[in-house]
Amino acid sequence: MKSASDGFSKMIKTLLYITPDPCPECGGNLYAWRAKNKDGSDRCPPTCMECGYKARKKAEDLETEKMFNDSLKARAINYLKYSSLYTDKNLINCRFKTYKTVDTETKLAFEIANRATTEILLNKPIHMILSGKSGVGK
Known about the structure:
The protein is α+β, with helices and mostly antiparallel strands. Helix content is 41%, strand content 10%. The protein folds into three domains: 52 residues, no CATH class; 31 residues; 45 residues, no CATH class. It has three helices and three strands, in the order H-E-E-E-H-H. The N and C termini lie far apart (82 Å).
């Protein structure tokens, strides 16, 4: 009489295959389904049977991250639009591309703001104080 583990081992060998990449957490084998979905994509990401690690699909990761970042951006813009106390509602449509430099002071303000924004987008620490007369683009 065969044991249940022999049956499971046979079923695993029939339905699953071992991926070439080892598990990033424990170094064990990652198993993936042999059968694909009707559209040709993988049924699910590879899984480690030793530690339970489940790899996520890269395309789904990128899409989820993009949706999350878009959601955060929309939330911040909506907060700015509907919760801020600025008098000119047209300011929300202003961009660096449409900024008009009329004198040296506005040109300097633009350069400083552009440099600071670049540093912020690169996740570098930056300290700045925006000062100047009204209407110079702080």
